[in-house]
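Recall that a protein's primary structure is simply its ordered list of amino acids. Everything else, from secondary elements to tertiary packing, is in principle encoded there. The following example makes that idea concrete.
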Amino acid sequence: MPKHAKNINGMDYTFLNWSDIYNECEVLCEKISKNENKFDCIIGLLRGGIIPARIISDFLLVNDIFCMDVKFYTGIGKKLDEPIIKFCDLDDKHNDILVVDDIYDSGSTMKTVKKFLKEEKKVSITTATLLCKKDSVQTPNYFSKYVKTKEWVIFPWEKNEFRTEMMKK
């Protein structure tokens, strides 16, 4: 992955472009395909996982995509005590689910999603993220590559949000 890194106010940021995202999705799908996993649907976690979920659905030929919103952060480095969960309903034909997010940080989001889906839907869940922080206690079932623990990754779909947050500081 090309490094578009900057240190701003003592914090390291890595800026990804659309080509980086597509390439990481392709690497991720190659890893998934090696295990011959087949999924009934993909759930993209809003907001960061929905774009990779769509790209991954194309690579894996999975037509049904749903979304789930799990909020742990209200801004850069501003974490909530309890997550906010919003979910659209799955029908009974979706039993083998791939859950996709952009980055696996502490693992809290995926842990929350897996718990929710297992309790509410009784389904088989496989997790995948483009990136995974090196010090994560657990990892998703699949990820494209590790990133440094202390860097904040800025994805192309959140560049304006990043600029707005930086202007507040």
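Helices lie at 18-34, 50-60, 108-120, 159-168. The beta strands are 5-8, 11-15, 41-46, 65-75, 78-87, 96-104, 124-133, 142-147, 151-154.
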